[in-house]
UniProtKB/TrEMBL annotation:
This is Alkylated DNA repair protein (DNA oxidative demethylase). It comes from Limibacillus halophilus. One of its GO terms (cellular component) is cytoplasm. Substrate binds at W57, Y65, R66, Y67, D120, R145. PANTHER family: ALKYLATED DNA REPAIR PROTEIN ALKB-RELATED, NUCLEIC ACID DIOXYGENASE ALKBH1. Residues 98-203 form the Fe2OG dioxygenase domain.
Amino acid sequence: MIGGVGYFPEFLCGEQQRTLVAAIASVLQEAPFFTPVMPRSGKSFSVCMTNTGPLGWVSDRQGGYRYQACHPNTGRRWPPIPQSVLDVWSSVAEYSHPPEACLVNYYRPGARMGLHQDRDEEELAAPVVSISLGDTGLFRIAADRQGPSSVVKLRSGDVLVMAGPARLSYHGIDRILGGSSRLLTGPLFPDGGRINLTLRRVTRP
Ligand code: MD3
Ligand code: FE
């Protein structure tokens, strides 16, 4: 594929996955999902988001992509990153400082994320760690926007670490396989779907 990709299928067992979902449910009480809007076009993302940690990723038509300390709708600071999430970073990141941002992406079946680079962070030497929960996502990754790409099925409990050359790769989610997991249920997730947590260092330590 591409150098610097760490792929850990089934890194998290069922109990660890349920612990993470419970932590996210509690985060949502304090920091509900918002719908980001693309700069210039004003188009809404089909993915909704929230964050935990001292910094959170947001986007709106006026301000564009950025990190900020407060929720765009409530104006309150993001809740802390749950310990169960920090434990995953410590196990796989091979980076001696804590993450500052944990972006929570929620994909209903039908949501997608177009091919993009993650370059809103100052500290590109730190890895990005991704945790997949719920329905399977078809993840696409390429070294260049036009060149060849690979597709990887990201299943519930899989962890990805993007470091080195992979850190500036192009990537996205082509589609969600609705009904492929029973992890996300109940009133918070009536349609199932997929949650992805991405852990990032934003500032230079
Ligand atoms: C490759 N999220 O939040 S996770 C994103 O499944 C994002 O929600 C996707 O792309 C998702 O920016 C993909 C895997 C991932 C995360 C971060 C990366 C791949 C990455 C950063 C750099 C390169
Ligand atoms: Fe990304």
